[in-house]
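Project outcomes to date are best conveyed with an example. Our students and postdoctoral researchers have been running inverse folding experiments weekly, and each run begins with a structure described purely in tokens. The record below, which covers 575 residues, was selected by the lab manager from last quarter's runs and is presented without edits.
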């Protein structure tokens, strides 16, 4: 049986299931036998202890994980929450019940806000469980330790748990809830944990069941046959070997260069990306720098950040995206409108235009950073829908001294008008996450429509092909910087559709590099044609998977450039 979900990363593991214990029962709502002051002391002690524990975990985890845990630790002692608990104690509630009610109210408020805020709701549930466990004298619900390696199944995993998973024991992670941008997914990607999120069917798995967790194909295979297990183990071993292979520039088997770039949110990840062979940055998500900022950052504040990034890539291309605020990534200083459908509202370039000085400041800061460093700076606008918007952005960038200005293609209208848009822009970068969301009308944050959020959909691929053709006709580069570029087989298809560079999480570079090295340009085009002709995403993926495997296992004499002679055995990178 196959259980579907959303795979994070390209790994596959075979192992036995261990389920996360169920959460604590809801504390009963009987009046407290203690005074509010005594209950208040108990709460203060428990909150303090939980905050200290989270902080200690933050220090052990470090990196993004550490930041998440540190934020949780601060949340545990948030004065608004503490005030709310105190009010409930004064009304006679027990400490356990008051904590439960206050955290639940706060959590519901975040869910109501939707988007990025809603994904933080899980953090609050986790903290309140830890506090209530401490108050009740039981151990906090957490990751089990069965004493052998296992695949963990949980409803959703708290950031505190994901961040500190013992990677020697936890082979992989399956969650019933969560979307591709939940904290679990973000942290799993960063820690290269093989994971499947939003796998509701995994509720049927029991402790001890043997499964194949195949993140690359977004499935869990239950009761696998010996042959399936062997095939998965071979893929696992091949992937481990690829990760150790020396890094080299991205190129096809016929030598065509396809630069492989990194998606970064700050210069913190630059060193690791370079070590993994990133040939530059294809998407610097500048809004990630200012998610917590109340006021717009100054030119100087921004220049410092941009210089750090540019200095990490001397002589290399760094594509910086102007602030993409709105929908799942609201910035307090750019989005103040309460919109029914923020993904269709004043976001991206639209929001920047409505506050043009912020855009001017950002471009000025970038021009200053460019002058002080020797990376090759390209700038691009997010969420461009029209030719007029393209002309506006490119004109402003040039006015402020930036030489190379392009646009992201994330809205179907921009793809359909790529031949006009690229007359004005120096390049296009396709954001397949949003392009898929808007083409399929499926909110990328919503687990219930995650099945539609598949960039293999031939409708999305046709749009990519249109942009690729426009770029080729006008001699303008066309990159992809959405998650699709991190799927090795889809990366080959994208190149076949005319994409000239790929940008992705650094952890995906090795797999994509290997996959590109297996095919010639003609073969990539042929695989792209197959995908375009399919009825839907599932059959596009299946057709291309099968054909790619055939190509690798039986290179025909008329395809002499498939790979170097010593590499003409099936390496199955593309499977
Ligand atoms: C995209 O939409 O594909 C993209 C790369 O931008 P983001 O994920 O930041 O919206
Ligand atoms: Mg986007």
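After processing, the design step wrote out the following sequence:
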């Amino acid at each position: 049986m196959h259980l579907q979900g959303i795979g994070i990363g390209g790994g596959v593991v075979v192992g036995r299931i261990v389920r996360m214990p169920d959460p604590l029962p809801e504390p009963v709502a009987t009046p407290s036998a203690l005074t509010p002051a005594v209950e208040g002391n108990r709460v203060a002690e428990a909150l303090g202890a939980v905050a200290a524990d989270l902080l200690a975990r933050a220090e052990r985890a470090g990196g993004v994980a550490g930041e998440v845990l540190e934020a949780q630790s601060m949340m545990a002692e948030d004065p608004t929450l503490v005030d709310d608990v105190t009010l409930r104690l004064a009304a006679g509630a027990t400490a356990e019940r008051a904590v439960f009610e206050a955290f639940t109210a706060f959590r519901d408020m975040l869910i109501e806000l939707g988007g990025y805020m809603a994904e933080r709701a899980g953090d609050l549930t986790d903290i309140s469980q830890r506090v209530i466990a401490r108050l009740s004298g039981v151990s906090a619900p957490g990751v089990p330790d069965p004493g052998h390696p296992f695949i963990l199944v949980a409803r959703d995993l708290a950031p505190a748990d994901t961040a500190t998973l013992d990677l020697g024991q936890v082979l992989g992670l399956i969650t019933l809830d969560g979307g591709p941008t939940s904290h679990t997914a973000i942290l799993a990607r960063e820690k290269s944990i093989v994971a499947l999120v939003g796998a509701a069917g995994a509720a049927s798995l029991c402790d001890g069941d043997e499964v194949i967790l195949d993140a690359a194909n977004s499935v869990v295979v239950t009761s696998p046959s010996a042959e399936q297990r062997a095939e998965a183990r071979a893929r696992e071993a091949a992937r481990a070997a690829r990760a150790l292979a020396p890094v080299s520039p991205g190129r096809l088997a016929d030598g065509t260069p396809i630069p492989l770039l990194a998606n970064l949110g700050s210069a913190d990840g630059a060193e690791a990306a370079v070590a993994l062979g990133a040939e530059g940055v294809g998407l610097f998500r500048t809004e990630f720098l200012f998610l917590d900022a109340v006021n717009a950052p100054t030119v100087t504040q921004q220049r410092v950040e941009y210089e750090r990034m540019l200095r990490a890539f001397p002589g290399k291309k760094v594509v910086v995206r102007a602030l993409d605020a709105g929908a799942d990534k609201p910035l307090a200083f750019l989005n103040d409108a309460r919109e029914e459908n923020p993904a269709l509202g004043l976001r991206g370039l639209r929001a920047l235009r409505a506050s043009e000085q912020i855009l001017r400041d950002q471009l000025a800061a970038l021009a200053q950073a460019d002058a002080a460093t020797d990376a090759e700076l390209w700038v691009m606008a997010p969420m461009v829908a029209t030719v007029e918007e393209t002309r506006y952005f490119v004109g402003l960038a040039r006015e402020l001294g930036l030489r190379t200005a392009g646009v992201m293609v994330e809205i179907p209208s921009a793809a359909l008008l790529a031949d006009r848009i690229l007359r004005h822009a120096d390049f296009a970068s396709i954001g397949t996450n949003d392009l898929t969301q808007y083409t399929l009308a499926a909110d990328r944050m919503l687990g219930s429509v995650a099945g539609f959020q598949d960039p293999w959909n031939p409708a999305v691929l046709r749009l990519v092909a249109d942009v690729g053709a426009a770029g080729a006709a006008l001699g303008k580069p066309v990159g992809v910087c959405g998650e699709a570029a991190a799927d090795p087989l889809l990366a080959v298809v994208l190149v076949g559709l005319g994409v000239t560079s790929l940008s992705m999480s650094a952890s995906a570079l090795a797999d994509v590099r290997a996959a590109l090295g297996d095919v010639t340009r003609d073969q990539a085009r042929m695989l792209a044609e197959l995908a375009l002709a399919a009825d839907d995403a599932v059959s596009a993926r299946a057709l291309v998977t099968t054909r790619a495997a055939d190509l690798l296992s039986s290179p025909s004499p008329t395809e002499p450039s498939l790979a170097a002679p010593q590499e003409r055995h099936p390496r199955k990178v593309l499977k």
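The first strand starts at residue 2 and ends at 4. The radius of gyration is 25 Å. The training component of this project remains on track.
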